[in-house]
Amino acid sequence: MQVELSKPAVQPIPPADPLRRILGRDYRLGYTLLIPLILVIFLLLAYPIGMAVWITLQDKTIGLPGRFVGLANYRDLLTIDPFFWQVVRNGFIFTVGSVALKLLIGLIMAVVLNQPIIFRGFFRGLLLMPWVAPTVVTALSWRWILDLTGVLNLMLRDLGLMRTSIPWLAQYGTAMFALIMVNTWRGFPFFGITLLAGMQAIPQELYEAAEVDGASVWQRFWHVTLPSLRTVILVVTILSTIWTFNDFSVVWLLTGGGPGHATDVFATYTYKLGFVTSRLGYGQTVSVILAPVLIVIIMVLSPLMLRGESE
């Protein structure tokens, strides 16, 4: 009589999927959900950037097919172009000056509006007006103020501070300064309202502990407020740096990059080369060269921001 052998109680474990072990149990679902996002990124980001780089490799005029020239546009821009390095210098002066002043004035605005002053809500709304006003309205208003016969010259003459009017937007010594002032006026509310939100999130216990330890108002600001705002400051500085480097409307409406090329920045110089002179490939090269500059700035500031978050 044969005895039927019983089946083993424990079934053999199938070999583990190496991808599942590395990527997690639900990796198939995760990558399935990522497919739409990858397509959107490709269509809205990768494809335009790729086409922009491809155009820089061509001698292309608007309305005509391009002729492949390789890196000739980059070579000419970096070695032959008589105005490119002036544009680079202008871009850094305009950006660094504007962002530094916006940060300083915005910080002062946040500190003042964080105090229990009368009509605080009204002043918060009033100081947001430069930020929410249309750029064209802002630029044209300041162009009227800074005109040779404008309000600023009239006021300075009436106060006896000068005898003749100054062409603020039409001479080398003042045009860039005027642009920085206008860009600062338009952008400091963004810094102010963001830093104000950061200040209101700081626990009051920190200020009370510092006051008990005998810290002065300045010491509480330096050792409590600023360290607590470090991440917020870095974020708004990165955003404002990118926006200012790419600013076109204010510069173009106020000076058009002039006089000469005294106030030309990357955006205006790209527009002149690409659309005024119809050299689309050469003009596109200027904007493509700007991208690594912004990437380096972000790579320098981002670790500081992440370090602040970890602390």
Search tags:
mainly alpha, 2 strands, MetI-like fold, 70% helix, 2 domains, 311 residues, 1% strand, two-stranded antiparallel sheet
3D architecture notes:
- Helices cover 70% and strands 1% of the residues.
- With 311 residues, it is mainly α.
- It folds into 2 domains: 21-56, no CATH class; 85-310, MetI-like fold.
- A two-stranded antiparallel sheet has the order 1-2.
- Strand 1 and strand 2 form a beta hairpin.
- Helix 2 packs antiparallel against helix 15 and helix 9 runs antiparallel to helix 12 (230-245).
- The relative contact order is 0.12.
Helix-strand layout with pairing:
Elements: H1 18-23, H2 27-56, E1 58-59, E2 67-68, H3 72-79, H4 84-113, H5 120-127, H6 129-132, H7 135-145, H8 151-158, H9 172-200, H10 204-212, H11 217-228, H12 230-245, H13 249-254, H14 266-276, H15 280-310
Antiparallel strand pairs: 1-2
Helix pairs in contact: 2-15, 4-9, 4-12, 9-12, 10-11, 12-15, 14-15
CATH fold call of the largest domain: MetI-like fold
Q: Stretches where pLDDT falls below 50 for ≥5 residues? A: none
The strand count comes to: 2
Radius of gyration: 28 Å
Number of helices: 15
The helicity comes to over 70%
What summary fits the major beta sheet?
2 strands, antiparallel
How are the strands of the largest sheet arranged?
1-2
Strand % is under 5%
Global mean pLDDT = 85
Write down the CATH class of the largest domain. Answer: Mainly Alpha
> Could you state the CATH homologous superfamily of the largest domain?
MetI-like
Structural class: mainly alpha
What distance lies between the first and last C-alpha atoms, to the nearest angstrom? 77 Å
- Total domains: 2
